[in-house]
Amino acid sequence: YHHSVIGSMDDLDAATLDDVKGFFRRFYTPNNASLCIAGDIEPKAVIELVEKYFAGIPGGPLVSPIRPETPVLQRAVRVVVEDRVVLPRLYLQWPTTPQLTGDAATLAVLSFILSTGKDSRLVKSLQIDRQLAQSLGCYQMGGEVAGLFEIIATAQRGVSLETVEEACWKEVRRIKKEGVLPEEVKNAVESLK
User: Fold this and answer.
1) What is the pTM of this model?
2) 10 Å Cβ neighbour count for 185?
């Protein structure tokens, strides 16, 4: 997830014709492909056509499936990016579990509780009660290999990012200490269905 899916231009420019052919022989084979057929079809006729056009294509080498793995950070990493913007923005991010896992679903519920609706924890605290943030959101984004949980908060004019960050951490620590309410979970699950 840290680079373009087609690779860098340097890698592409350095690739030989044999490199490209080898790549296609390894990855673009029937045993590493999915075929999707959509529309108003006759299943029996479609299966016959698929067999006619694809059955004779030889398989390629086995490609190992990607192993999901949640990265572990050894330390906090801070990056400051400056530009000509009107309001500063804070991104708090954590590596999380891959998509389609129980933990990913739990984190989706947590993100809803934190930032969806005016009664959500972060919106109520940072926007309504204290007017620290102009906008904010919280998201669980699961991928095939790993996921990312993030809180994004845009500060109100005149409010420092340090103040916004501390308010976000306060709500995260409060949930860690006190947990969430059953009705918060119920509302989130019903809304996410």
Assistant:
1) 0.72
2) 16
How far from the centroid of its chain's Cα atoms is residue 85's Cα? Answer: 25
Section 185-191 average pLDDT: 93
For 18, the token pair is 């044999």
| Residue 8: C-alpha distances to residues 12, 106, 188 (Å) | 6, 35, 40
Which residue type occupies 167?
A: A
- β-strands 133-142, 89-96 pairing: unpaired
State the DSSP H helix or E strand holding residue 149, giving kind and residue range, or none if neither.
Answer: strand 147-155
The H or E element containing residue 61 is none
Is 170 within 8 Å of 126 (Cβ atoms)? no
142: which strand partners? 147
Tokens of 110: 């947590």
- Tell me which H or E stretch contains 124: none
d(CA 167, CA 77): 19
Quick: pLDDT tens for 73-114.
899 999 999 999 999 999 999 999 989 888 999 999 999 999
* Contacts made by residues 110-114, CB under 8 angstroms, sequence distance 24+: 110/138, 110/140, 110/149, 110/175, 110/180, 111/138, 111/139, 111/140, 111/149, 112/138, 112/187, 112/188, 112/191, 112/192, 113/175, 113/180, 113/184, 113/185, 113/188, 114/138, 114/151, 114/171, 114/175
